[in-house]
Amino acid sequence: MTNAAFPNVSKIKYEGPQSKNPLAFKQYNPDQKIAGKTMRDHFRFAVSYWHTFRGTGADPFGPGCALRPWDDGSNSVVNAQNRARVAFEFLEKLGVPHYCFHDRDVAPEGATLAESNRNLDAVVKVLKEEQKRTGIKLLWGTANLFSNPRYVHGASTSCNADSFAFAAAQVKKAMEVTLELGGQGYTFWGGREGYSTLLNTDLKREQEHLAKFLHMAVDYKKKIGFKGQFYIEPKPKEPTKHQYDSDVAACLNFLREYDLFDHLKLNIETNHATLAGHSMLHELTTAAAAGRLGSIDANTGDELLGWDTDQFPTDIYGTTEIMLVVLGMGGFTTGGLNFDAKVRRESFEPVDLFHAHIGGMDTFARGLKIAHAIRQDGRLAKFVKNRYASWDTGIGKKIETGKADFRSLEAYMLEKGEVTPCTSGRQEMLENLINEFI
Ligand code: XUL
Ligand code: CO
Fold first, then answer.
1. DSSP character for 274?
2. DSSP code of 199?
């Protein structure tokens, strides 16, 4: 294990709930089995390169102030290569099995596309060495199609066809390096794919272009033999006023409309769910019901702030709900829990990166234990099953199995006269039940 960037932090260990050591896990014990699987394999945690290794704390009111002593502040390839080694020291000490990146997080953009590709190759070489040295894997890769001014009007949904072409070249390369690094997935987040005003926007044409772009990616995936999972990541707003992938339902509809349903799953982010006016539980349940829940960007927003604050998850109720859905679908396959989260600007010391991730991992460990206990207890699932008992026999069964129509239902009701009285939804009782376990 290298010890250059974080000399005062050693490997983070599980010390149990009684520990007062801020640099230890109290709940996350990677080797502990829950429901027949280790915590490590349940969560498949990932660190996001963009926040943790490129975040500076800059905001609209001031420049970055994060202390990153290993960074020489330059945009050089050497600095990027050194940063990649630091990233792996961090991942190794934290004991996280995966990371995720955008092309431009890991390597500087050059003056030309060819130079950018060369820069990326030079850093990918180091990432590959470090993956080999540590056994840490790439959960998914992606391309930054939103920072450069060429994407001012969007990438694949731009009014400028050249922006589409440049984005295609960039994604082609990002897919190639994801494949080279053994990445298990590739994510498409909308970036600037949306609009600020409909007065200047041909919405239908832009959405068709987005679909065309994704079809080209699907074709190229086959061509290069990339077997990883494609994800689309919903977000309702920011940077544009209205993003095309606004929520899970909009994404599912888009995938169906443009014949992409079998090719992409969803990568769902908590703060995006709440910005869309939904709960994370709603978004996950909607995607899982369609068999399209692939991966999760784990973070949280702030109830009092209306933008994407990307905070680390600390709410046990929230992680319990997430783990109920994940356990309910039988766990992740290619996906995992990627901390798409950043430390606050005021938390500018390197050690804060450890505190943030330890907290997130412990919060998910609590959530997993609680969700498993709720499932083992069985009362919640039994209540839901019983609530729909009228569908298991008699007229309900006939409707579900296609043995009823309007005429037979009219005859049924004329004879019966009135519906069997309903039973209470018992919401408060169920909320109390959940709190028994928290
Ligand atoms: C932006 C966001 C992205 C994606 C990857 O809100 O969540 O970082 O996860 O492009
Ligand atoms: Co995200």
1. H
2. G
Per-residue CA distances from 181 to 174, 280, 399 (Å):
11, 31, 51
Known catalytic residue at 102: yes
Q: Which of 233, 268, 274 to mutate to test the pocket of ligand 1 (most atoms within 8 A of CB)?
A: 233
Q: From the alpha carbon of 142, which atom of ligand 1 is closest?
A: 10
Centroid of ligand 2 to alpha carbon of 421 (angstroms):
46
Residues 228, 334 contacting (CB under 8 angstroms): yes
**All residues with CB under 5 Å from ion ligand 2:** 269, 297, 340
Residues 6 or more apart whose Cβ sits within 8 Å of residue 338? 45, 46, 47, 48, 98, 100, 139, 140, 267, 295, 296, 297, 298
- Reading the block at residue 349, the tokens are 């010391």
- Mind listing the pLDDT tens digit of every residue in the chain (438 residues)? 777 899 999 999 999 999 999 999 999 999 999 999 999 999 999 999 999 999 999 999 999 999 999 999 999 999 999 999 999 999 999 999 999 999 999 999 999 999 999 999 999 999 999 999 999 999 999 999 999 999 999 999 999 999 999 999 999 999 999 999 999 999 999 999 999 999 999 999 999 999 999 999 999 999 999 999 999 999 999 999 999 999 999 999 999 999 999 999 999 999 999 999 999 999 999 999 999 999 999 999 999 999 999 999 999 999 999 999 999 999 999 999 999 999 999 999 999 999 999 999 999 999 999 999 999 999 999 999 999 999 999 999 999 999 999 999 999 999 999 999 999 999 999 999 999 999
Check if the beta carbon of residue 351 is closer than 8 Å to that of residue 66: no
Q: Give the position of tokens 């974080």.
A: 6
Amino acid code (one letter) for 343: V
Pocket, ligand 1, Cβ cutoff 6 A: 50, 102, 142, 187, 189, 233, 235, 269, 297, 308, 340
Nearest C-alpha to atom 2 of ligand 1 is from which residue? 189
Element (H, E) at 114: helix 113-134
Radius of gyration of the chain (CA): 24
Under a CB-based contact definition with an 8 Å cutoff, are residues 194 and 152 in contact? no
Catalytic (active site) residue 278: no
Tokens 């990307």 belong to 310
Give the pTM: 0.98
Separation CA 21–CA 23 (nearest Å): 5
* End-to-end CA separation in angstroms for the chain: 37
Q: Indicate the burial class of 100 (C-beta count within 10 angstroms; 0-12, 13-18, 19 or more).
A: buried
Distances (CA, A) of 299 to 146, 190, 284, 420: 21, 18, 14, 44
